[in-house]
Amino acid sequence: MLFNEIVGHSKQINLIRRFVEGGVFPQSTLFVGPEGVGKRRIARELFQNLCGSLNIIEVGVDKPVTVDQVREFSSWLFKKPTSGSGKAVIIDRADEMRGEAANALLKTLEEPPSYGYICLISKSESGVLPTIRSRCRIFRFGPLPESSVSYLIEKQGLKVDKKVIKLSRGSIGTALKLLESPVIDLVEEFTSLLKSDDKLKKVLPFAEKFAKLTREEVFLFFDALEAIVFERGGVPRWEELINSARYYLKFYSKSQSVVEWFLISAFKL
Questions:
Q1: What are the structural domain ranges in the chain?
Q2: Which CATH number fits domain 10-140: 2.60.40.10, 1.20.1180.10, 3.40.50.300, 3.40.50.360?
Q3: Measuring CA to CA, which residue among 11, 16, 8, 264 is closest to residue 144?
Q4: Which of 95, 111, 210, 253 is deepest in the core (most CB within 10 A)?
Q5: What are the tens digits of pLDDT across the range 159-172?
Q6: d(C-alpha 257, C-alpha 263), whole Å
Q7: Which residue stretches of the chain are H helix?
Q8: pTM of the full structure
């Protein structure tokens, strides 16, 4: 049965199944929800059922699609399939597309071929252009329950860590990344530093540890801190500081420099 191995999202899955069984699944869709909760996996299984595994293209997984990629997969989409009953394009990071790529995609969404499907995947619904959103059937996916995250971790033969489950915020993808990185230890060290009397003297030694981390792991560190703030009911000053650190990390500075700035700012709160 379709989606037999998918954990969670029963409401969305049942709705998708009804569309598929009725032969009326929308040609243009937008899957919105937290990162790492299974949106892309659901899309992949859906279109394997509708089109066959050889008739699916996935783009935007590692970085947002470019206008050249949009033109390339659009050209592919408009060529009738030589096997199977359709073709599908899965576009991840839809909320991170630049204007030129989004406008090129809009042309394809306006008049897709009768056998073609396009599924956009996004963390943010508002981050997708309104003109694109208006042409898509939106499916909203929420965080997974903690029990589901624990089950999926155990299913992979890994040990469940309660701290990881809490900080993952219902994302199995985030939980697995946390288990494979030193982020949890760094978060605990940071919370200890906050209580230290001589914390400003420890800024540089602590920030130096981030020089060996990937940019993704540094983002993961800030996500974990945000999860702690959220769990405690939210503190606007902390939320603003974490968002600023993410912004600087994404557009400007080296990881270590961003962490140094963040620590100094945090210790003044």
A1: 10-140, 181-267
A2: 3.40.50.300
A3: 8
A4: 210
A5: 989 999 999 999 99
A6: 10
A7: 10-21, 39-51, 67-77, 99-110, 130-133, 146-155, 162-168, 172-179, 183-194, 203-208, 215-231, 236-251, 255-267
A8: 0.87
